[in-house]
Protein backbone atom coordinates (compact mmCIF):
# COMPACT_ATOMS: atom_id res chain seq x y z
CA UNK A 1 0.00 0.00 0.00
CA UNK A 2 2.61 2.39 1.15
CA UNK A 3 4.83 1.77 -1.86
CA UNK A 4 1.96 2.11 -4.30
CA UNK A 5 0.91 5.42 -2.84
CA UNK A 6 4.44 6.72 -2.66
CA UNK A 7 5.37 5.94 -6.24
CA UNK A 8 3.31 8.55 -8.16
CA UNK A 9 4.21 11.06 -5.50
CA UNK A 10 7.87 10.45 -6.17
CA UNK A 11 7.33 11.06 -9.88
CA UNK A 12 5.53 14.35 -9.24
CA UNK A 13 8.34 15.35 -6.91
CA UNK A 14 10.95 14.57 -9.55
CA UNK A 15 9.10 16.51 -12.23
CA UNK A 16 8.79 19.53 -9.98
CA UNK A 17 12.48 19.36 -9.14
CA UNK A 18 13.40 19.19 -12.83
CA UNK A 19 11.18 22.18 -13.63
CA UNK A 20 12.72 24.22 -10.82
CA UNK A 21 16.20 23.24 -11.88
CA UNK A 22 15.47 24.31 -15.48
CA UNK A 23 14.17 27.65 -14.30
CA UNK A 24 17.43 28.25 -12.47
CA UNK A 25 19.81 26.70 -14.94
CA UNK A 26 18.39 28.05 -18.19
CA UNK A 27 19.50 31.71 -17.86
CA UNK A 28 22.91 30.48 -16.84
CA UNK A 29 23.12 28.14 -19.80
CA UNK A 30 21.87 30.88 -22.11
CA UNK A 31 24.61 33.19 -20.86
CA UNK A 32 27.24 30.54 -21.54
CA UNK A 33 25.94 29.81 -25.04
CA UNK A 34 25.54 33.47 -25.94
CA UNK A 35 29.12 34.12 -24.91
CA UNK A 36 30.22 31.83 -27.76
CA UNK A 37 27.92 33.22 -30.46
CA UNK A 38 28.71 35.84 -33.06
CA UNK A 39 26.77 39.10 -32.80
CA UNK A 40 24.53 38.46 -35.90
CA UNK A 41 23.61 35.08 -34.48
CA UNK A 42 22.72 36.63 -31.13
CA UNK A 43 20.15 38.89 -32.83
CA UNK A 44 18.77 36.23 -35.19
CA UNK A 45 15.11 35.31 -34.90
CA UNK A 46 14.10 32.60 -34.21
CA UNK A 47 17.12 32.25 -31.93
CA UNK A 48 19.51 29.32 -32.26
CA UNK A 49 20.19 27.20 -29.22
CA UNK A 50 23.78 26.06 -29.83
CA UNK A 51 26.14 28.52 -31.54
CA UNK A 52 26.59 27.79 -35.28
CA UNK A 53 30.16 28.99 -35.10
CA UNK A 54 31.89 28.77 -31.70
CA UNK A 55 33.41 32.24 -31.36
CA UNK A 56 36.04 32.38 -28.64
CA UNK A 57 37.16 35.91 -29.44
CA UNK A 58 34.33 37.42 -27.32
CA UNK A 59 36.29 36.61 -24.21
CA UNK A 60 39.36 38.45 -25.50
CA UNK A 61 37.20 41.40 -26.49
CA UNK A 62 35.65 41.57 -23.04
CA UNK A 63 38.99 41.18 -21.32
CA UNK A 64 40.64 43.89 -23.43
CA UNK A 65 37.80 46.38 -23.18
CA UNK A 66 39.16 47.75 -19.91
CA UNK A 67 41.69 47.06 -17.16
CA UNK A 68 40.08 43.71 -16.40
CA UNK A 69 43.04 42.31 -14.54
CA UNK A 70 42.81 45.31 -12.25
CA UNK A 71 39.09 44.70 -11.76
CA UNK A 72 39.64 41.05 -10.95
CA UNK A 73 42.35 41.99 -8.50
CA UNK A 74 40.16 44.64 -6.84
CA UNK A 75 37.21 42.29 -6.63
CA UNK A 76 39.38 39.67 -5.05
CA UNK A 77 40.88 42.06 -2.49
CA UNK A 78 37.45 43.39 -1.58
CA UNK A 79 35.74 40.01 -1.29
CA UNK A 80 38.58 38.43 0.68
CA UNK A 81 39.15 41.55 2.79
CA UNK A 82 35.47 41.70 3.74
CA UNK A 83 35.48 38.00 4.50
CA UNK A 84 38.49 38.19 6.82
CA UNK A 85 37.10 41.20 8.66
CA UNK A 86 33.73 39.55 9.01
CA UNK A 87 35.29 36.41 10.45
CA UNK A 88 37.32 38.43 12.91
CA UNK A 89 34.25 40.31 14.13
CA UNK A 90 31.59 37.60 13.85
CA UNK A 91 33.43 34.91 15.81
CA UNK A 92 33.90 36.88 19.05
CA UNK A 93 30.46 38.50 18.74
CA UNK A 94 28.74 35.17 18.15
CA UNK A 95 30.70 33.57 20.98
CA UNK A 96 29.65 36.31 23.35
CA UNK A 97 26.02 36.18 22.28
CA UNK A 98 25.97 32.40 22.54
CA UNK A 99 27.95 31.87 25.70
CA UNK A 100 27.94 34.88 27.99
CA UNK A 101 25.20 36.39 30.08
CA UNK A 102 25.65 40.12 30.27
CA UNK A 103 23.30 43.05 30.75
CA UNK A 104 21.80 44.18 27.46
CA UNK A 105 22.65 40.99 25.63
CA UNK A 106 19.17 40.48 24.23
CA UNK A 107 18.84 44.11 23.25
CA UNK A 108 22.16 44.04 21.42
CA UNK A 109 21.27 40.82 19.69
CA UNK A 110 17.93 42.35 18.71
CA UNK A 111 19.75 45.30 17.16
CA UNK A 112 21.98 42.88 15.29
CA UNK A 113 18.92 41.12 13.90
CA UNK A 114 17.46 44.45 12.82
CA UNK A 115 20.68 45.17 10.96
CA UNK A 116 20.08 41.91 9.14
CA UNK A 117 16.82 43.27 7.78
CA UNK A 118 18.05 46.63 6.49
CA UNK A 119 19.23 46.63 2.88
CA UNK A 120 22.37 48.67 2.07
CA UNK A 121 20.32 50.95 -0.17
CA UNK A 122 18.67 52.40 2.92
CA UNK A 123 21.84 53.33 4.75
CA UNK A 124 24.34 54.06 1.96
CA UNK A 125 24.02 57.81 2.28
CA UNK A 126 25.22 58.23 5.89
CA UNK A 127 27.94 55.69 5.24
CA UNK A 128 29.03 57.58 2.14
CA UNK A 129 29.18 60.79 4.14
CA UNK A 130 31.19 59.01 6.82
CA UNK A 131 33.61 57.51 4.30
CA UNK A 132 33.92 60.86 2.63
CA UNK A 133 34.71 62.44 5.98
CA UNK A 134 37.50 59.94 6.47
CA UNK A 135 38.76 60.55 2.96
CA UNK A 136 38.19 56.95 2.01
CA UNK A 137 35.78 57.40 -0.90
CA UNK A 138 37.21 55.98 -4.10
CA UNK A 139 39.53 53.63 -2.21
CA UNK A 140 39.18 49.91 -1.66
CA UNK A 141 38.69 50.66 2.04
CA UNK A 142 35.32 52.18 1.30
CA UNK A 143 34.29 48.86 -0.21
CA UNK A 144 35.62 46.75 2.66
CA UNK A 145 35.10 48.63 5.92
CA UNK A 146 31.32 49.19 5.76
CA UNK A 147 30.87 45.43 5.47
CA UNK A 148 33.34 44.56 8.24
CA UNK A 149 30.66 43.19 10.56
CA UNK A 150 28.02 40.86 9.24
CA UNK A 151 24.77 40.48 11.14
CA UNK A 152 24.03 37.37 9.13
CA UNK A 153 27.39 35.87 10.05
CA UNK A 154 26.93 36.66 13.72
CA UNK A 155 23.46 35.16 13.69
CA UNK A 156 24.51 32.00 11.87
CA UNK A 157 27.59 31.42 14.02
CA UNK A 158 25.72 32.09 17.22
CA UNK A 159 23.25 29.34 16.40
CA UNK A 160 26.08 26.96 15.73
CA UNK A 161 28.05 27.93 18.86
CA UNK A 162 24.94 27.42 20.97
CA UNK A 163 24.85 23.77 19.97
CA UNK A 164 28.25 23.04 21.48
CA UNK A 165 27.73 21.28 24.83
CA UNK A 166 28.66 23.39 27.88
CA UNK A 167 30.89 20.60 29.14
CA UNK A 168 33.24 20.90 26.18
CA UNK A 169 33.89 24.53 27.02
CA UNK A 170 34.17 23.74 30.72
CA UNK A 171 36.65 20.97 29.97
CA UNK A 172 38.71 23.47 28.02
CA UNK A 173 38.60 25.94 30.91
CA UNK A 174 39.83 23.19 33.21
CA UNK A 175 42.55 22.55 30.66
CA UNK A 176 43.67 26.11 31.27
CA UNK A 177 42.61 27.37 27.87
CA UNK A 178 41.95 31.11 27.61
CA UNK A 179 38.60 32.30 26.27
CA UNK A 180 40.44 33.41 23.15
CA UNK A 181 41.84 29.94 22.67
CA UNK A 182 38.48 28.28 23.36
CA UNK A 183 36.97 30.48 20.69
CA UNK A 184 39.48 29.82 17.97
CA UNK A 185 40.69 26.31 18.80
CA UNK A 186 37.47 24.68 19.97
CA UNK A 187 34.44 26.62 18.76
CA UNK A 188 35.61 27.67 15.32
CA UNK A 189 36.69 24.17 14.23
CA UNK A 190 33.35 22.78 15.43
CA UNK A 191 31.52 25.45 13.45
CA UNK A 192 33.59 24.86 10.32
CA UNK A 193 30.72 23.75 8.05
CA UNK A 194 28.75 26.83 9.02
CA UNK A 195 31.78 29.04 8.54
CA UNK A 196 32.33 27.63 5.06
CA UNK A 197 28.73 28.29 4.13
CA UNK A 198 28.82 31.79 5.48
CA UNK A 199 32.17 32.43 3.80
CA UNK A 200 30.69 31.40 0.47
CA UNK A 201 27.64 33.59 0.86
CA UNK A 202 29.75 36.53 1.82
CA UNK A 203 32.33 36.01 -0.92
CA UNK A 204 29.73 35.59 -3.62
CA UNK A 205 27.74 38.60 -2.46
CA UNK A 206 30.75 40.89 -2.48
CA UNK A 207 32.24 39.41 -5.61
CA UNK A 208 29.00 40.11 -7.46
CA UNK A 209 28.08 43.35 -5.74
CA UNK A 210 27.40 46.15 -8.13
CA UNK A 211 25.57 48.71 -6.05
CA UNK A 212 28.22 49.51 -3.46
CA UNK A 213 31.21 49.95 -5.81
CA UNK A 214 28.97 52.07 -8.04
CA UNK A 215 28.49 54.54 -5.20
CA UNK A 216 31.91 54.47 -3.64
CA UNK A 217 34.22 54.44 -6.65
CA UNK A 218 34.77 56.71 -9.60
CA UNK A 219 38.00 55.54 -11.15
CA UNK A 220 39.11 52.33 -12.81
CA UNK A 221 41.93 51.91 -10.30
CA UNK A 222 39.48 50.88 -7.56
CA UNK A 223 36.57 49.50 -9.57
CA UNK A 224 35.55 45.89 -9.30
CA UNK A 225 34.66 43.27 -11.88
CA UNK A 226 30.86 43.76 -11.92
CA UNK A 227 31.45 47.42 -12.76
CA UNK A 228 33.76 46.43 -15.57
CA UNK A 229 31.06 44.16 -16.98
CA UNK A 230 28.47 46.90 -16.67
CA UNK A 231 30.80 49.23 -18.53
CA UNK A 232 30.83 46.78 -21.43
CA UNK A 233 27.13 47.45 -21.78
CA UNK A 234 27.59 51.18 -21.98
CA UNK A 235 30.80 51.41 -23.94
CA UNK A 236 29.70 51.34 -27.58
CA UNK A 237 26.11 52.46 -27.87
CA UNK A 238 24.60 49.21 -29.14
CA UNK A 239 24.62 46.28 -26.77
CA UNK A 240 27.15 43.66 -27.80
CA UNK A 241 25.44 40.86 -25.91
CA UNK A 242 27.93 38.15 -26.82
CA UNK A 243 30.82 40.15 -25.33
CA UNK A 244 28.77 41.15 -22.28
CA UNK A 245 27.93 37.52 -21.71
CA UNK A 246 31.57 36.55 -22.12
CA UNK A 247 32.38 39.12 -19.43
CA UNK A 248 29.73 37.60 -17.21
CA UNK A 249 31.20 34.14 -17.71
CA UNK A 250 34.55 35.54 -16.58
CA UNK A 251 32.78 37.04 -13.58
CA UNK A 252 31.15 33.82 -12.41
CA UNK A 253 34.04 31.54 -13.27
CA UNK A 254 35.85 31.84 -9.88
CA UNK A 255 32.58 31.21 -8.07
CA UNK A 256 31.96 28.09 -10.10
CA UNK A 257 35.43 26.85 -9.19
CA UNK A 258 34.78 27.49 -5.50
CA UNK A 259 31.43 25.72 -5.65
CA UNK A 260 33.05 22.81 -7.37
CA UNK A 261 35.53 22.32 -4.54
CA UNK A 262 33.33 23.30 -1.62
CA UNK A 263 30.20 21.42 -2.66
CA UNK A 264 30.62 18.77 0.02
CA UNK A 265 30.98 21.40 2.75
CA UNK A 266 27.98 23.35 1.54
CA UNK A 267 25.72 20.31 1.61
CA UNK A 268 27.03 19.32 5.01
CA UNK A 269 26.50 22.78 6.40
CA UNK A 270 22.84 22.71 5.46
CA UNK A 271 22.30 19.22 6.79
CA UNK A 272 23.99 20.31 10.01
CA UNK A 273 21.76 23.36 10.28
CA UNK A 274 18.55 21.47 9.85
CA UNK A 275 19.38 18.80 12.38
CA UNK B 1 47.96 15.54 46.66
CA UNK B 2 45.65 17.69 48.58
CA UNK B 3 42.85 17.80 51.03
CA UNK B 4 39.72 19.66 49.97
CA UNK B 5 37.86 21.71 52.50
CA UNK B 6 34.38 23.22 52.21
CA UNK B 7 33.37 25.78 54.79
CA UNK B 8 29.71 26.80 54.96
CA UNK B 9 29.47 26.67 51.17
CA UNK B 10 26.24 28.04 49.77
CA UNK B 11 25.06 28.15 46.18
CA UNK B 12 21.91 29.91 45.07
CA UNK B 13 20.56 30.28 41.57
CA UNK B 14 18.38 33.40 41.35
CA UNK B 15 17.81 33.38 45.12
CA UNK B 16 16.88 29.73 44.97
CA UNK B 17 19.32 27.97 47.31
CA UNK B 18 20.59 24.71 45.84
CA UNK B 19 23.42 24.03 48.24
CA UNK B 20 22.67 25.15 51.78
CA UNK B 21 25.78 25.59 53.85
CA UNK B 22 28.04 22.62 53.33
CA UNK B 23 30.84 21.82 55.76
CA UNK B 24 32.94 19.01 54.45
CA UNK B 25 36.49 17.77 54.69
CA UNK B 26 37.72 15.57 51.91
CA UNK B 27 40.92 13.99 53.20
CA UNK B 28 44.04 13.89 51.10
CA UNK B 29 44.14 10.77 48.96
CA UNK B 30 40.60 9.68 49.74
CA UNK B 31 38.04 8.39 47.29
CA UNK B 32 35.09 10.51 48.32
CA UNK B 33 31.74 9.90 46.72
CA UNK B 34 28.97 12.49 46.74
CA UNK B 35 25.73 10.61 46.37
CA UNK B 36 22.10 11.60 46.44
CA UNK B 37 18.96 11.82 44.33
CA UNK B 38 18.91 14.17 41.36
CA UNK B 39 18.64 17.80 42.37
CA UNK B 40 20.30 17.22 45.75
CA UNK B 41 23.15 19.61 44.92
CA UNK B 42 25.92 17.06 44.52
CA UNK B 43 26.87 18.08 41.00
CA UNK B 44 26.67 21.75 41.88
CA UNK B 45 29.03 21.09 44.79
CA UNK B 46 31.48 19.36 42.49
CA UNK B 47 31.25 22.16 39.96
CA UNK B 48 31.96 24.70 42.69
CA UNK B 49 35.08 22.77 43.67
CA UNK B 50 36.06 22.76 40.00
CA UNK B 51 35.45 26.49 39.73
CA UNK B 52 32.81 26.10 37.05
CA UNK B 53 30.19 27.60 39.35
CA UNK B 54 30.79 30.60 41.54
CA UNK B 55 30.32 30.12 45.25
CA UNK B 56 27.48 32.28 46.59
CA UNK B 57 28.82 32.14 50.11
CA UNK B 58 31.43 30.25 52.10
CA UNK B 59 34.95 29.09 51.31
CA UNK B 60 36.56 26.31 49.35
CA UNK B 61 40.11 25.28 50.09
CA UNK B 62 42.28 22.95 48.07
CA UNK B 63 45.44 22.06 49.94
CA UNK B 64 46.38 25.17 51.84
CA UNK B 65 44.99 27.56 49.24
CA UNK B 66 41.63 29.26 49.28
CA UNK B 67 40.38 28.86 45.73
CA UNK B 68 37.15 30.87 45.67
CA UNK B 69 38.63 33.31 43.16
CA UNK B 70 41.04 30.97 41.40
CA UNK B 71 39.97 30.17 37.80
CA UNK B 72 39.27 26.47 37.04
CA UNK B 73 42.43 25.99 35.03
CA UNK B 74 44.63 27.10 37.93
CA UNK B 75 43.14 24.94 40.66
CA UNK B 76 45.34 21.99 39.82
CA UNK B 77 42.48 19.60 39.30
CA UNK B 78 41.04 17.60 36.46
CA UNK B 79 37.48 16.63 35.77
CA UNK B 80 35.82 13.79 33.92
CA UNK B 81 32.36 14.63 32.64
CA UNK B 82 29.35 12.40 32.21
CA UNK B 83 29.23 12.94 28.45
CA UNK B 84 33.05 12.85 28.26
CA UNK B 85 33.18 16.39 26.80
CA UNK B 86 35.95 15.52 24.38
CA UNK B 87 36.94 18.15 21.84
CA UNK B 88 35.14 16.79 18.78
CA UNK B 89 37.44 18.25 16.14
CA UNK B 90 40.67 17.10 17.77
CA UNK B 91 42.02 13.58 17.58
CA UNK B 92 42.82 11.54 20.68
CA UNK B 93 46.38 12.78 20.88
CA UNK B 94 45.35 16.43 20.62
CA UNK B 95 42.57 15.89 23.16
CA UNK B 96 45.01 14.56 25.72
CA UNK B 97 47.74 17.06 24.87
CA UNK B 98 45.53 20.17 24.91
CA UNK B 99 45.85 20.81 28.65
CA UNK B 100 49.59 20.27 28.58
CA UNK B 101 50.08 22.64 25.66
CA UNK B 102 48.09 25.31 27.46
CA UNK B 103 50.50 25.02 30.35
CA UNK B 104 53.30 25.79 27.94
CA UNK B 105 54.94 22.38 28.14
CA UNK B 106 57.61 21.81 25.48
CA UNK B 107 56.34 19.85 22.48
CA UNK B 108 58.65 16.90 23.02
CA UNK B 109 57.77 16.49 26.67
CA UNK B 110 54.10 16.80 25.82
CA UNK B 111 54.41 14.05 23.28
CA UNK B 112 56.16 11.62 25.58
CA UNK B 113 53.65 12.27 28.39
CA UNK B 114 50.69 11.66 26.09
CA UNK B 115 52.21 8.42 24.82
CA UNK B 116 52.91 7.31 28.35
CA UNK B 117 49.30 7.86 29.44
CA UNK B 118 47.91 6.35 26.24
CA UNK B 119 49.85 3.24 27.12
CA UNK B 120 48.31 3.15 30.60
CA UNK B 121 44.72 3.41 29.39
CA UNK B 122 45.31 1.28 26.29
CA UNK B 123 44.74 3.92 23.64
CA UNK B 124 48.10 3.84 21.89
CA UNK B 125 46.70 2.59 18.60
CA UNK B 126 43.87 5.13 18.60
CA UNK B 127 45.87 8.33 19.01
CA UNK B 128 45.03 9.73 15.58
CA UNK B 129 41.32 8.88 15.70
CA UNK B 130 38.60 11.46 16.23
CA UNK B 131 36.25 10.98 19.20
CA UNK B 132 33.37 10.26 16.80
CA UNK B 133 35.26 7.18 15.61
CA UNK B 134 35.54 5.68 19.09
CA UNK B 135 33.18 3.54 21.17
CA UNK B 136 31.69 4.81 24.43
CA UNK B 137 34.24 2.94 26.50
CA UNK B 138 37.13 4.28 24.46
CA UNK B 139 35.85 7.83 24.75
CA UNK B 140 35.65 7.33 28.48
CA UNK B 141 39.30 6.29 28.47
CA UNK B 142 40.27 9.36 26.49
CA UNK B 143 38.48 11.52 29.04
CA UNK B 144 40.33 9.72 31.81
CA UNK B 145 43.66 10.03 30.04
CA UNK B 146 43.05 13.72 29.48
CA UNK B 147 42.53 14.12 33.22
CA UNK B 148 45.42 11.88 34.27
CA UNK B 149 48.03 13.39 32.01
CA UNK B 150 47.90 16.64 33.94
CA UNK B 151 48.84 14.82 37.14
CA UNK B 152 46.41 16.90 39.16
CA UNK B 153 46.13 17.01 42.94
CA UNK B 154 42.42 16.33 42.76
CA UNK B 155 40.32 14.33 40.32
CA UNK B 156 36.69 15.32 39.95
CA UNK B 157 34.28 12.92 38.32
CA UNK B 158 30.70 13.77 37.50
CA UNK B 159 28.79 10.53 36.92
CA UNK B 160 31.51 9.33 34.56
CA UNK B 161 30.11 5.84 34.13
CA UNK B 162 26.43 6.50 33.62
CA UNK B 163 26.65 6.56 29.82
CA UNK B 164 28.24 3.11 29.66
CA UNK B 165 26.43 -0.20 29.42
CA UNK B 166 26.19 -2.33 32.55
CA UNK B 167 29.07 -4.67 31.79
CA UNK B 168 31.50 -1.93 30.87
CA UNK B 169 30.36 0.07 33.86
CA UNK B 170 31.35 -2.73 36.22
CA UNK B 171 34.69 -3.09 34.52
CA UNK B 172 35.41 0.64 34.65
CA UNK B 173 34.37 0.73 38.29
CA UNK B 174 37.12 -1.71 39.15
CA UNK B 175 39.59 0.13 36.94
CA UNK B 176 38.82 3.46 38.56
CA UNK B 177 39.31 2.17 42.08
CA UNK B 178 42.60 0.54 41.17
CA UNK B 179 43.63 3.72 39.39
CA UNK B 180 42.91 5.62 42.57
CA UNK B 181 45.11 3.27 44.55
CA UNK B 182 47.85 3.58 41.96
CA UNK B 183 47.82 7.38 41.78
CA UNK B 184 47.11 8.10 45.41
CA UNK B 185 45.45 11.39 44.46
CA UNK B 186 42.26 12.72 45.95
CA UNK B 187 39.20 11.57 44.03
CA UNK B 188 35.84 13.29 44.32
CA UNK B 189 33.18 11.32 42.57
CA UNK B 190 29.56 12.24 42.02
CA UNK B 191 26.89 9.66 41.37
CA UNK B 192 23.21 9.08 41.97
CA UNK B 193 23.80 5.34 42.07
CA UNK B 194 24.19 4.11 45.62
CA UNK B 195 25.73 0.81 44.46
CA UNK B 196 28.46 2.74 42.69
CA UNK B 197 28.97 4.86 45.79
CA UNK B 198 29.16 1.89 48.14
CA UNK B 199 31.54 -0.13 45.97
CA UNK B 200 33.95 2.66 45.08
CA UNK B 201 34.12 5.19 47.87
CA UNK B 202 36.09 5.05 51.07
CA UNK B 203 34.20 8.11 52.27
CA UNK B 204 30.62 8.61 51.23
CA UNK B 205 28.78 11.88 51.48
CA UNK B 206 25.03 11.40 51.28
CA UNK B 207 23.24 14.56 50.21
CA UNK B 208 19.61 15.55 49.98
CA UNK B 209 17.99 18.89 49.21
CA UNK B 210 21.25 20.78 49.34
CA UNK B 211 22.37 19.44 52.68
CA UNK B 212 24.73 16.74 53.82
CA UNK B 213 22.81 13.93 55.48
CA UNK B 214 25.74 11.83 56.58
CA UNK B 215 29.45 11.44 55.93
CA UNK B 216 30.74 7.95 56.63
CA UNK B 217 32.44 4.86 55.30
CA UNK B 218 30.26 2.46 53.28
CA UNK B 219 29.93 -0.05 56.13
CA UNK B 220 29.08 2.60 58.68
CA UNK B 221 26.54 4.13 56.35
CA UNK B 222 24.83 0.81 55.90
CA UNK B 223 24.91 -0.24 59.53
CA UNK B 224 24.51 3.06 61.21
CA UNK B 225 22.44 5.53 59.20
CA UNK B 226 21.87 8.77 61.09
CA UNK B 227 18.46 9.46 59.66
CA UNK B 228 15.54 8.10 57.72
CA UNK B 229 16.77 9.48 54.41
CA UNK B 230 20.14 7.76 54.57
CA UNK B 231 18.55 4.57 55.84
CA UNK B 232 16.24 4.43 52.85
CA UNK B 233 18.69 5.74 50.27
CA UNK B 234 21.48 3.31 51.01
CA UNK B 235 20.77 -0.36 50.48
CA UNK B 236 18.75 -2.09 47.83
CA UNK B 237 15.91 -2.75 48.14
CA UNK B 238 15.34 0.17 50.49
CA UNK B 239 14.84 -0.27 54.21
CA UNK B 240 11.29 -1.16 55.27
CA UNK B 241 9.75 1.59 57.38
CA UNK B 242 6.71 0.96 59.55
CA UNK B 243 4.78 3.01 62.01
CA UNK B 244 5.15 1.72 65.52
CA UNK B 245 2.26 1.79 67.91
CA UNK B 246 4.19 1.20 71.09
CA UNK B 247 5.81 4.59 70.96
CA UNK B 248 4.24 7.85 69.74
CA UNK B 249 5.73 9.56 66.68
CA UNK B 250 8.35 6.91 66.23
CA UNK B 251 9.03 4.94 63.08
CA UNK B 252 10.59 1.56 62.95
CA UNK B 253 12.78 0.21 60.18
CA UNK B 254 14.61 -2.90 59.15
CA UNK B 255 16.56 -3.94 56.11
CA UNK B 256 14.89 -6.44 53.76
CA UNK B 257 17.79 -8.85 54.20
CA UNK B 258 17.29 -8.87 57.98
CA UNK B 259 13.68 -9.90 57.85
CA UNK B 260 12.86 -13.56 58.17
CA UNK B 261 9.94 -15.06 56.42
CA UNK B 262 8.22 -18.31 57.20
CA UNK B 263 4.99 -20.05 56.36
CA UNK B 264 2.52 -19.48 59.21
CA UNK B 265 2.12 -23.11 59.93
CA UNK B 266 5.70 -23.34 61.05
CA UNK B 267 6.27 -22.69 64.74
CA UNK B 268 7.88 -19.33 65.48
CA UNK B 269 11.24 -19.17 67.13
CA UNK B 270 11.15 -17.34 70.40
CA UNK B 271 13.51 -14.42 70.04
CA UNK B 272 13.43 -10.81 71.05
CA UNK B 273 12.17 -8.74 68.19
CA UNK B 274 9.04 -8.14 66.19
CA UNK B 275 6.87 -10.29 64.08
CA UNK B 276 3.81 -9.77 61.98
CA UNK B 277 1.58 -11.64 59.63
CA UNK B 278 1.10 -11.11 55.97
CA UNK B 279 0.45 -12.58 52.59
CA UNK B 280 3.01 -12.91 49.80
CA UNK B 281 1.85 -10.63 47.01
CA UNK B 282 4.65 -11.41 44.59
CA UNK B 283 8.20 -12.62 44.54
CA UNK B 284 11.30 -12.04 42.45
CA UNK B 285 13.88 -14.77 42.15
CA UNK B 286 17.23 -13.06 41.69
CA UNK B 287 19.34 -16.21 41.65
CA UNK B 288 20.99 -16.65 44.98
CA UNK B 289 18.29 -14.59 46.65
CA UNK B 290 14.55 -14.14 46.53
CA UNK B 291 12.65 -10.93 47.09
CA UNK B 292 9.22 -11.33 48.68
CA UNK B 293 6.70 -8.53 48.51
CA UNK B 294 4.47 -9.13 51.48
CA UNK B 295 1.19 -7.35 52.19
CA UNK B 296 0.68 -6.72 55.88
CA UNK B 297 -1.48 -4.54 58.05
CA UNK B 298 1.37 -2.07 58.04
CA UNK B 299 1.60 -1.88 54.30
CA UNK B 300 3.84 -3.65 51.86
CA UNK B 301 7.09 -5.04 53.19
CA UNK B 302 9.98 -6.39 51.20
CA UNK B 303 12.02 -9.28 52.51
CA UNK B 304 15.14 -10.62 50.92
CA UNK B 305 15.66 -14.29 51.68
CA UNK B 306 18.29 -16.80 50.75
CA UNK B 307 17.44 -19.21 48.06
CA UNK B 308 18.47 -22.23 50.06
CA UNK B 309 15.53 -21.66 52.41
CA UNK B 310 12.44 -23.28 50.96
CA UNK B 311 10.63 -21.11 48.37
CA UNK B 312 7.30 -19.69 49.46
CA UNK B 313 4.57 -19.50 46.86
CA UNK B 314 2.63 -16.37 45.99
CA UNK B 315 -0.61 -15.79 47.90
CA UNK B 316 0.62 -17.84 50.80
CA UNK B 317 0.13 -16.59 54.35
CA UNK B 318 3.41 -15.93 56.09
CA UNK B 319 4.87 -14.67 59.29
CA UNK B 320 7.62 -12.06 59.20
CA UNK B 321 10.01 -11.59 62.05
CA UNK B 322 12.95 -9.32 62.71
CA UNK B 323 15.44 -9.63 65.53
CA UNK B 324 15.61 -6.69 67.94
CA UNK B 325 19.23 -5.99 67.08
CA UNK B 326 18.31 -5.44 63.43
CA UNK B 327 15.71 -2.79 64.15
CA UNK B 328 16.20 0.94 63.63
CA UNK B 329 14.08 3.68 65.15
CA UNK B 330 13.45 7.12 63.75
CA UNK B 331 11.67 10.20 64.95
CA UNK B 332 8.60 10.59 62.77
CA UNK B 333 8.83 14.39 62.61
CA UNK B 334 12.54 15.03 62.15
CA UNK B 335 13.44 11.73 60.54
CA UNK B 336 16.44 11.52 62.84
CA UNK B 337 17.58 8.20 64.21
CA UNK B 338 16.48 7.54 67.77
CA UNK B 339 18.96 5.48 69.75
CA UNK B 340 18.29 3.49 72.87
CA UNK B 341 14.81 2.33 71.91
CA UNK B 342 13.87 -1.16 72.80
CA UNK B 343 11.19 -3.48 71.70
CA UNK B 344 9.33 -4.21 74.85
CA UNK B 345 7.15 -6.99 73.71
CA UNK B 346 7.05 -9.75 71.27
CA UNK B 347 3.49 -9.97 70.12
CA UNK B 348 2.87 -12.92 67.94
CA UNK B 349 -0.68 -14.03 67.93
CA UNK B 350 -2.36 -10.75 67.07
CA UNK B 351 -0.06 -10.11 64.19
CA UNK B 352 0.60 -6.67 65.58
CA UNK B 353 4.03 -5.21 65.84
TrEMBL record, chain A:
Family that this chain belongs to: Belongs to the binding-protein-dependent transport system permease family.
ABC transmembrane type-1 domain boundaries: 72-262
Annotated localization: Cell membrane
Protein name from the UniProt record: Sn-glycerol 3-phosphate transport system permease protein
Entries under InterPro entries matching the protein: MetI-like, MetI-like_sf
Membrane topology (UniProt): Multi-pass membrane protein
One protein family per Pfam: BPD_transp_1
Keywords for this protein: Cell membrane, Membrane, Transmembrane, Transmembrane helix, Transport
Automatic annotation (TrEMBL), chain B:
Record domain ABC transporter: where: 4-234
Signal sequence segment: none
PROSITE patterns: ABC_TRANSPORTER_1, ABC_TRANSPORTER_2
Keywords assigned: ATP-binding, Nucleotide-binding, Transport
Domain of life according to the entry: Bacteria
Protein name from the UniProt record: Sn-glycerol 3-phosphate transport system ATP-binding protein
Pfam families: ABC_tran (PF00005), TOBE_2 (PF08402)
Nucleotide-binding found in the keyword field: yes
CDD domains: ABC_MalK_N
GO molecular function, one term: ATP binding
Matches recorded under Gene3D superfamilies: 2.40.50.100, Nucleic acid-binding proteins, P-loop containing nucleotide triphosphate hydrolases
